[in-house]
Design a protein that fits this description.
Elements: E1 4-13, H1 15-22, H2 30-45, E2 55-66, E3 69-75, H3 79-93, E4 96-99, H4 102-117, E5 140-142, H5 143-147, H6 158-164, H7 178-183, H8 187-212, H9 217-234, H10 237-248
Parallel strand pairs: 1-4, 4-5
Antiparallel strand pairs: 1-2, 2-3
Helix pairs in contact: 3-4, 8-9
Length: 249
């Protein structure tokens, strides 16, 4: 079978980059540096959501399905190492990438950050007919973009689509609290939140394959059960919450 790699990232403001761009004092606290960037962005756009080049990757979470089974894991640590390991996975396994708004956010952030760090992502940038970076090719499947028929006005949030599909939806801190949680030193909460988002994305991918007729009902149910059984074996608090919501849904 073709390996499937569903992924999601969580980010924090790139305070070092913001300091450099706006010539801010080195001793200005990170919280204040970020707030300056938020205020500038609000003035420009009405939203404090920073452009992709000013996001720093905190964690990349993945669901990897292959002939060897299924695995859920997160890449954490120094940003350059985290991103390089992600691209090395693509290099080694050449998987089908699956995301929710990955073309609109996750991959642009990863690409900018890889560029800044001087990293290598040869396989990702291969100029093949079916490649990872063309919007209308399927080596990277951005589920949100495809289901919206490539019309931004039809985009929908992952949490709502997952819940309406009878899936758990988001759990944990929520995207708006990632920065505060990071400043508080509770990085495990960010990882757990990101992993749950990735599991929702993977389950929606399974439903999408059922929708397309690639999976029969029995194959869909088998694949969903494989993930459920794996999460049960992990027996971690965030997965227990995830499974409880899944059962209730």
């Amino acid at each position: 079978m073709t390996s499937i790699l569903a992924f999601d990232i969580e980010t924090i403001p790139d305070v070092a980059g913001i300091r450099r761009l706006h010539d801010l004092p080195k001793d200005l606290p990170d919280r204040e540096v970020a707030e300056i960037a938020f205020q500038r962005r609000r003035t420009q756009t009405g939203s404090d959501f920073l452009p992709p080049q000013l996001h720093k990757v905190a964690v990349i979470s993945c669901v990897f399905r292959s002939d060897d089974g299924i695995k859920v894991f997160s890449l954490e640590g120094e940003e350059a190492d985290v991103i390089q390991r992600f691209y090395e996975g693509i290099e080694k396994f050449v998987p089908q990438l699956v995301s929710w708004n990955g073309g609109g956010f996750d991959l642009p952030v990863l690409n900018y950050r890889a560029l800044f760090h001087g990293l290598s992502a040869t396989r990702f940038w291969e100029p093949e007919r079916n490649n990872y970076y063309n919007r209308y090719h399927d080596r990277h499947l951005d589920l949100m973009d495809v289901l919206a028929m490539y019309q931004p006005r039809n985009n929908a949030p992952l949490d709502e689509v997952a819940q309406l599909a009878g899936l758990p939806g988001k759990i944990g801190i929520g995207g708006a609290k990632v920065w505060e949680t990071w400043l508080g030193g509770e990085r495990a909460k960010i990882r757990d939140y990101c992993e749950a988002d990735t599991a929702n994305t993977y389950l929606l991918y399974l439903r999408y394959q059922l929708l397309r007729g690639v999976f029969s009902k029995s194959i869909y149910e088998k694949e969903a059960k494989i993930l459920r059984s794996y999460l049960q074996e992990l027996n971690k608090p965030h997965w227990r919450e995830f499974l409880q919501l899944w059962n209730e849904a």
